[in-house]
Write a structure and sequence with these properties.
Length: 578
C-alpha cells in the first residue's frame, strides 16, 4: 500500500511539473510574439485588421499560460496550443505569399513540437492540423482569394531568415528530444536495476511462466530453495519439477492465472537438484492479458517444509489423541458391560432378600443390609449406565429412536426415581408441563434420562426445605425443558467447566456428594443429538437452572411435527454431536 501511495504522489508531482513547464513555455512564446508584434508595429505603423489577427495569434500563448491555472487537463491545453500554432503558421503563410511564402517551412515544425508534448496521438493531431492549414492555403491560392503579401523585406532575405530560424528551432527540438530520451532511458535503467536488485536478494523464488507453465525467468533464490542454478530451470514445464501427486494442483493454479486472470495459490512438492523433494507454496497471478489470449504469469514460491512438518506433527498428535479416546471409550464400554452383569445379580438377589420372597430372613438388621446392598448396587448401575452411554455417544454408536410420547408421564416416572432421595433430604419436587408440550416427538428413553439426571443433580445439591421444579413449554416451534433448583448455585468459573465429561464443582459440600460428573455432559450430548442445546444458568446462593431446547420435538394439534429435523447420510440430525 505504501508503494502505491508513493507512486501516486510521484505521478502527481510529475504532472504538476509538466503543467508548470507548459505554462513557462507558453509564456516565453507569448513574450517572443510580443517582441515580433512590437517590431512589426514600429516598422509599419498602426496595423490594419489583417495584421491585428496575426498579432493576436502571436500573443495567444499568453492566454494558454493563464489557462494552466485552471482545471483544464494538460492534454487538452497542449492540443489547443498545437492547433493554435498550426493555425497561426497557416495564417502567416497566407498573408506572406501563400505557397511561395518563406514561412511555409514552419508547418513542418508543428508535428516536431508535438513529439515533445505528448505521444503518437498528439503527433497525429498536430500533423493533421498542419496539413489542414497547408491545404487551406493552397485552396485559397487556387481560388485567388489570398490577400496581398505583407513581406517587409526582399523574398530571398526573408527566406534566409525564415529557414535559419526553422533550422535553429529544429535543433532545439532535436536537443529536447534527446534529453527526454536520455531521461527515459535512465529511468528505465534505474527501474530495471531496482527490480533486478529485489529479485536477486529476495528469499522467495520469483519466476515468470508462459501460458503452458514453462519457466521463462527464475531468480537466484532457486539455488537456495531447489539447489538448482536459475539457468537450469529455463524452459522446464511443471511436470519436470513438481511431484506427480501434486501436479494437478499446480496446473490448476496456472490455468486460473493464465486463462481466467485470477490470482491462485498451490501447495506442492518440487524436486531439488539432488532428486529429493521440498514442500513449497506458490502464489501466481497473470502478468497481463493480451487481446483476451492467455497471458504470461508471475509466481512467487516459498519453502514451507517446516510448516508442513508442523502440520504433520499436529495431525499425528490429533490422530493419536483420537485413537487414545477411542481406546478409552472401548475400555469403558467393555468394563461397563462386564460390571453390569454381576451388578444385575447383586441388585436382583438383594431385592429378593429385601422382599423376603422365599421366607423370612431373620434378623431385621439383615433386611437393612439387603436394602443398602440394593440401593448401592442400583446407584452403581446408574453410574455405569451413564459411563456406557457417554462412551457410545463419543464413539458415535448412540442411536436415537424417536417417537411421539407423553412428556408429562415421562417426567412423572423420572420424578419417581429420585422421590425417595428427595423425601429423605426434605426437598420438594414440582412438575409443570404446559398443555402444548404434553405430547412430543423425540427419543423417549433419552429424554427420560435427561430429566432424571437433572432432577438427581438438583436434589443432590439442594439443602433441606428447598425445591426442585421441572417446567416444559413450547418455544420457537420447539420444546424447552427447564429444571431449576433453589440450591447453593455455581460460580461463573465453574459454569464454564461444567458440561464436560467427568467435570464436577469443587467445594467442601460438593465433595460429600457422590457422582462421576457425567450427568450434565450426557444432557448436553443428548440435546445436541436432537439438534438442540442445553444451557446452564446459575448464581451462587440462588440456585441453578438447566434449559434443554429440542427444536424439532413439538407436535401440532393434529399430531404432526411442526419443524422437521434435517438428517445426514446416516439418518442422524444434522449438526448433532457425535
Amino acid at each position: 500500500m505504501a508503494v502505491n501511495e508513493t507512486i501516486a504522489v510521484t505521478d502527481g508531482t510529475d504532472i504538476a511539473a509538466q503543467r508548470r513547464r507548459f505554462m513557462v513555455v507558453q509564456a516565453a512564446k507569448a513574450a517572443v510574439g510580443a517582441l515580433l508584434a512590437a517590431g512589426f508595429v514600429a516598422l509599419t505603423g498602426m496595423p490594419d485588421t489583417v495584421a491585428w489577427i496575426a498579432i493576436a495569434g502571436l500573443l495567444f500563448p499568453a492566454a494558454l499560460a493563464l489557462l494552466g491555472f485552471t482545471r483544464i487537463s494538460l492534454d487538452t491545453l497542449e492540443s489547443l496550443a498545437l492547433a493554435s500554432f498550426a493555425a497561426l503558421i497557416g495564417y502567416l503563410v497566407a498573408i506572406t505569399g501563400g505557397m511561395t511564402s518563406p514561412l511555409l517551412v514552419w508547418l513542418v515544425l508543428v508535428p516536431a513540437e508535438a513529439a515533445l508534448a505528448g505521444g503518437r496521438q498528439t503527433v497525429w493531431r498536430a500533423g493533421s492540423a498542419a496539413a489542414i492549414a497547408l491545404i487551406m492555403v493552397a485552396l485559397l491560392q487556387a481560388l485567388n482569394e489570398l490577400p496581398q503579401s505583407r513581406l517587409l523585406a526582399p523574398g530571398w532575405a526573408f527566406y534566409t531568415i525564415s529557414v535559419l530560424a526553422a533550422v535553429m528551432q529544429s535543433a532545439l527540438v532535436a536537443i529536447a528530444t534527446q534529453d527526454r530520451q536520455r531521461a527515459a532511458d535512465h529511468a528505465a535503467a534505474e527501474g530495471a536495476a531496482m527490480y533486478r536488485f529485489l529479485a536477486d536478494n529476495a528469499m522467495d523464488l520469483i519466476t515468470r511462466h508462459s501460458a503452458d507453465g514453462r519457466i521463462r525467468f527464475a531468480s537466484p533464490a532457486a539455488q537456495a530453495i531447489l539447489g538448482r542454478a536459475p539457468e537450469s530451470l529455463l524452459g522446464l514445464a511443471p511436470s519436470a519439477l513438481v511431484h506427480p501427486q501434486d501436479l494437478a494442483a499446480m496446473q490448476h493454479a496456472f490455468v486460473e492465472a493464465s486463462y481466467f486472470g485470477r490470482s491462485a495459490i498451490a501447495e506442492a512438492r518440487m524436486k531439488k537438484g539432488d532428486g529429493s523433494y521440498v514442500w513449497v507454496e506458490m502464489r501466481c497471478r497473470p502478468a497481463a492479458l493480451v487481446n483476451g489470449n492467455a497471458a504470461d504469469m508471475v509466481a512467487v514460491t516459498r519453502d514451507i517444509t517446516e510448516r508442513k512438518a508442523h502440520e504433520r506433527e499436529l495431525i499425528d498428535a490429533r490422530d493419536a489423541a483420537e485413537e487414545a479416546n477411542r481406546a478409552k471409550s472401548r475400555f469403558l464400554a467393555n468394563m461397563s458391560h462386564e460390571l453390569r452383569t454381576p451388578l444385575n445379580a447383586v441388585i436382583g438377589f438383594s431385592e429378593v432378600m429385601t422382599h423376603e420372597m422365599f421366607g423370612p430372613v431373620g434378623s431385621p438388621r439383615y433386611l437393612e443390609y439387603a436394602r443398602l446392598i440394593n440401593e448401592s448396587g442400583s446407584h452403581l448401575l446408574g453410574l455405569i449406565n451413564g459411563i456406557l452411554d457417554m462412551s457410545k455417544i463419543e464413539a458415535g454408536k448412540f442411536d436415537l429412536t424417536e417417537e411421539a410420547f407423553d412428556l408429562n408421564e415421562v417426567a412423572e416416572q423420572a420424578g419417581q426415581f429420585v422421590k425417595m432421595q428427595a423425601d429423605r433430604k426434605g426437598v420438594i419436587l414440582k412438575l409443570a408441563i404446559a398443555p402444548e408440550a404434553h405430547t412430543v416427538f423425540a427419543d423417549k428413553r433419552a429424554v427420560k434420562q435427561v430429566i432424571m439426571n437433572l432432577l438427581s443433580n438438583g436434589v443432590k445439591f439442594t439443602p433441606r426445605g428447598g425445591e426442585v421444579r421441572v417446567i416444559a413449554a413450547r418455544r420457537a416451534n420447539g420444546i424447552e425443558i427447564a429444571v431449576s433448583d433453589t440450591g447453593m448455585g455455581i460460580s461463573p468459573d465453574d459454569v464454564k467447566r461444567l458440561g464436560q465429561p467427568f467435570e464436577q464443582v469443587e467445594g467442601a459440600h460438593n465433595r460429600t456428594q457422590e457422582g462421576t460428573g457425567l450427568g450434565l455432559a450426557l444432557v448436553k450430548a443428548i440435546a445436541q443429538m436432537h439438534g438442540g442445546e442445553a444451557k446452564l444458568e446459575s448464581r451462587l446462593g440462588e440456585g441453578t437452572t438447566v434449559r434443554v431446547f429440542l427444536p424439532y420435538a413439538a407436535l401440532s394439534a393434529a399430531g404432526e411435527r411442526i419443524a422437521t429435523a434435517p438428517l445426514d447420510a446416516d439418518g442422524r440430525v444434522r449438526n448433532a454431536a457425535a
